[in-house]
Amino acid sequence: MTITNQQLFERSQQFIPGGVNSPVRAFKSVGGTPVFFQRGQGAYFWDVEGKSYIDYVGSWGPLILGHAHPAVVKVVQEAVQNGMSFGAPTAAELEMAELLCTLLPSIEQVRLVSSGTEAGMSAIRLARGFTGRSRIIKFEGCYHGHDDALLVKAGSGALTFGNPSSAGVPAETVSHTLVLDYNDVAGLEKAFSELGNEIAAVIVEPIAGNMNLIKADPEFLAVLRKLCTQHGSLLVLDEVMTGFRVGLQCAQGIYGIQPDLTILGKVIGGGMPMAAFGGRRDVMQCLAPLGPVYQAGTLSGNPVAVAAGLETLRQIQTEGFFEKLSTRTRQLTDGLVAVARKYGVRFSAQSEGGMFGIYFGENPPKTFTEVMACDREAFNRFFHAMLAEGIYFAPSSFEAGFVSSTHGDAEIEKTLNAAERVFEQGL
Ligand SMILES: N[C@H](C=O)CCC(=O)O
């Protein structure tokens, strides 16, 4: 007899808070029982009841090559056979560092860590250590992991559950964090004119995938770069989600912007726990053992994660990879918009590379306020109707979606046919 999602969820709640190891998995905002997965291959994964789904979450971004890509599986198996962890330098981690520095010219030196949270937290500490200043700026609805200093008016799960600023974060800790509106140039100019010389760093998602998906106005990022330079503050681009997901040069290449520091994660680990922070050599050299800023990790540069990440980065450098991925993603978003229009549903969508946002609103939002104005109830009904059709979108209207290189014409067609049935029946 097969076990059901419901049975596993009931048992999980006894032993794991909320039954999940990361809140956004709990289906709290969309309601219902989370799906427990047991196997994935390419664009599909299967739950414990044997039902298959086309996956548009891709483990929240890393799986740009789909589930269990044969080349990635092979290098992981080889790496495991050679030892799971050394806690000492390896040639492979050097290869990864050289590759990241080559692909992203703004990165002169890089350090590997195990999660996006660690990368964000380390970049902020480094920026403070380098500048000797405490104050930082972030933007409402952007999420940079769950480090105390950055968990203020955050996006992603924090926003989903209506607690964008977490309990347990001391007021003194976040008294140095100034939160501004995304894409608001005037607000930025005002903050710098008042406090410019106190600001250690500004951290921003150039394409904010943690409040569905909002694109920064090029002018907003250009002004941000200029103000940081003028005031000696460091610009930290959070490319954990966009890094090697929107294109080979990441969002910084698309916008033509040179950050002082970049944080990366997701795709660079190929589905394994790996992230990185890197940037200007003079800044990075403030890190221990060279400088006074301490940062460390037992599993940093883990050889198995590095193997998966290196192979993933090799695959995405194949000629035409991002052109194909972008076309495929647009095929999905354009198709969904066309079907919604046909049935008079207020719906819009946009994408960048293999990342997309869908909105129950007339136009793609440009600000946090516009994100909040989208019809969340309509999204929840859509989510469940599509889930029943075997299409797995992120279980939150505040999360971006992801397409992999294994999503083909057949998967897009199945998805659009399902959306047609859902919109035809009415939400
Ligand atoms: N948006 C989050 C990460 O980027 C979603 C993943 C999580 O919180 O578990």
Automatic annotation (TrEMBL):
One of its GO terms (biological process) is protoporphyrinogen IX biosynthetic process. CDD domains: OAT_like. It catalyses: (S)-4-amino-5-oxopentanoate = 5-aminolevulinate. It is found in: Cytoplasm. SUPFAM superfamilies: PLP-dependent transferases. Its cofactor is pyridoxal 5'-phosphate. Transmembrane segments: none annotated. PROSITE patterns: AA_TRANSFER_CLASS_3 (PS00600). GO terms for cellular component: cytoplasm. The modification N6-(pyridoxal phosphate)lysine is found at K266. One of its GO terms (molecular function) is pyridoxal phosphate binding. InterPro entries: 4pyrrol_synth_GluAld_NH2Trfase, Aminotrans_3, Aminotrans_3_PPA_site, PyrdxlP-dep_Trfase, PyrdxlP-dep_Trfase_major, PyrdxlP-dep_Trfase_small. Pathway: Porphyrin-containing compound metabolism; protoporphyrin-IX biosynthesis; 5-aminolevulinate from L-glutamyl-tRNA(Glu): step 2/2. Gene3D superfamilies: Aspartate Aminotransferase, domain 1, Type I PLP-dependent aspartate aminotransferase-like (Major domain). Keywords: Aminotransferase, Cytoplasm, Isomerase, Porphyrin biosynthesis, Pyridoxal phosphate, Transferase. It comes from the Bacteria. Its EC number is 5.4.3.8. PANTHER family: GLUTAMATE-1-SEMIALDEHYDE 2,1-AMINOMUTASE, GLUTAMATE-1-SEMIALDEHYDE 2,1-AMINOMUTASE 1, CHLOROPLASTIC-RELATED. Homodimer. NCBIfam families: hemL, PRK00062.1. Belongs to the class-III pyridoxal-phosphate-dependent aminotransferase family. HemL subfamily. This is Glutamate-1-semialdehyde 2,1-aminomutase.
